[in-house]
UniProtKB/TrEMBL annotation:
Ranges annotated as spanning the membrane: 12-35, 395-417
Name of protein: Chain length determinant protein EpsF
Coiled-coil segments: 255-303
InterPro entries: Bact_polysacc_biosynth/exp, Chain_len_reg_EpsF, GNVR, LPS_length_determ_N
Subcellular location: Cell membrane
Record organism: Rhodoferax fermentans
Molecular function terms from GO: protein tyrosine kinase activity
GO CC annotations, alphabetized: plasma membrane
Domain Tyrosine-protein kinase G-rich: 339-416
Keywords associated with the record: Cell membrane, Coiled coil, Membrane, Transmembrane, Transmembrane helix
Upper lineage: Bacteria, Pseudomonadati, Pseudomonadota, Betaproteobacteria, Burkholderiales
Every Polysaccharide chain length determinant N-terminal domain range: 2-87
UniProt keyword Zinc-finger present: no
Its membrane topology: Multi-pass membrane protein
Length: 449
């Protein structure tokens, strides 16, 4: 179909096309004027994704996730936020709304669910491009009501977002509070066990007692070693075959003096016996003196050997006493070491319980603060105000659209009518219909036939 053919068809069918066009435009205008006016109020909230946690001061990694803003939009569109809006505006207690719900649902279901669905249908949430600003739009026939609902959605979103953050913190706070009580009980039990053990054993400073008793044990051991050495020496001297070979005998000045006197008298006796004879009174006196000196020497030697025997006996007794004292002291030191080990175990239990209590108590304090905070990273940037002009219906825009659609419908109707009843309106139509070339044409003069 050529442009000429198309224009000829429109000229021939212009009445029908014009009628369709006028009906379309008129209908659109009438409907636009009859439709109730809708007012759209918009509240703007800003989401700060870079603010640190007010308690810990740390950045929350979830806010930096790519889907964080999409999640926030889903939260605003959620039933929980819509129900919170109903509670804020007390819509469920309105008698008119209750009657409308009964008429619409025959009293089936829950009023708050029905209201939430109605509010969500008129809610539109749009995030700003390349920013953290979210526009909350609500449409209604009453501009004041639309503004109130838009602001309520913004406030309900903040409340729900804060509650979503605080709910886990409240659970953690309850959990850590219980754990803190359990840790405190365990710490008190460990401290009581340590105190009871110290009181039962009379321990004030076990380390000092162990050091003192260990030093005493070392001293007793040194004394025993010394006594054993003396006893061994006495035993060796005691078992000697010749008394005159004992060191004490050989080193005694009295015995050495007696030996010198005996040697001198023996020499004198030999000389006297040679000069005077054995029966001479002088010789006999010398023999008597020599016998006396030898008896004295033997007596002194016996005294020394007797003292060695006495020293040996005393040493054995002392050794036995020191052996008993050493065994007793060892047992005492071992008992003190055992007490110290048991005391150290109890102390470590107290220290472990103390550390656990401090960690749990610190975490409990932190979660308690987190559960009580009222700070959030969302704030209302612009509150909604009652719009002065309606947002719907847009009469001018609807007329423009109706003109475009009416034109399309008019052209389409003209073409459909032409196809249903094909006419020859030009030489091209005749050539197409007969499949013969056109040799000539007579121009239409407009005269009466």
């Amino acid at each position: 179909m050529t442009l000429q053919q198309f224009l000829l068809i429109l000229r021939a069918r212009y009445k029908a096309a014009l009628l369709v066009f006028l009906i379309t435009v008129a209908t659109t205008v009438v409907v636009s004027l009859l439709l109730p006016k809708q007012y759209t109020a918009s509240a703007t909230v800003v989401v700060d994704v870079k603010s640190p946690d007010p308690v810990t001061g740390q950045m929350l990694q979830g806010m930096m996730a790519p889907g964080y803003m999409a999640t926030q939009i889903d939260i605003i569109n959620s039933d929980r936020v819509a129900k919170d809006v109903i509670k804020l505006l007390k819509l469920d207690s309105n008698a008119v709304v209750q009657q409308q719900w009964r008429d619409d649902t025959d009293g089936k279901g829950q009023l708050i669910d029905w209201l939430a669905t109605l509010l969500q249908k008129k809610l539109e949430v749009k995030p700003s491009r390349e920013s953290n600003v979210i526009n909350v739009n609500f449409s209604g026939t009453d501009p004041d009501f639309a503004a109130a609902v838009a602001n309520a959605f913004a406030q309900a979103y903040i409340n729900v977002n804060l509650d979503l953050r605080l709910a886990p913190a409240r659970q953690y706070a309850t959990f850590f509070e219980e754990q803190t009580k359990a840790a405190r009980t365990k710490l008190e039990a460990a401290q009581k066990a340590l105190s009871d053990y110290q009181q039962q054993n009379g321990i004030t400073s076990v380390d000092e007692r162990v050091d003192f008793e260990t030093a005493k044990l070392n001293e007793t051991s040194s004394q025993l070693t010394g006594v054993q050495a003396l006893t061994t020496d006495s035993q060796s001297k005691r078992g000697s075959a010749k008394a005159d070979t004992i060191a004490e005998v050989m080193q005694s000045p009295l015995i050495n003096g007696l030996k010198a006197d005996i040697a001198r008298l023996e020499a004198k006796l030999v000389e006297s016996s040679g000069n005077l004879g054995k029966n001479h009174p002088q010789t006999q006196r010398a023999e008597s003196e020599l016998a006396t000196l030898k008896a004295q020497l033997e007596s002194e030697t016996r005294k020394i050997t007797s003292s060695i025997e006495t020293t040996y006996q005393v040493g054995k007794q002392r050794e036995a006493q020191l052996q008993g004292a050493l065994s007793s002291q060892k047992a005492r030191v071992l008992a003190l070491n055992k007490q110290r080990d048991e005391l150290n175990v109890l102390r470590r239990d107290v220290e472990s319980a103390q550390r656990a209590f401090e960690v749990v108590s610190q975490r409990a304090s932190q979660t308690n603060l987190e559960s009580q905070t009222t700070q959030t990273n969302i704030a209302v940037l612009n509150a909604a105000t009652a719009p002065a002009d309606p947002s719907k219906p847009k009469v001018f825009l609807n007329i423009l659209v109706s003109i475009f659609l009416g034109t399309l419908l008019a052209v389409g109707l003209a073409l459909m009518l032409e196809l249903a009843n094909r006419r020859v309106r030009s030489a091209d139509d005749l050539a197409d219909a007969l499949n013969l070339p056109v040799l000539g044409s007579i121009a239409h003069t407009g005269a009466a036939a």
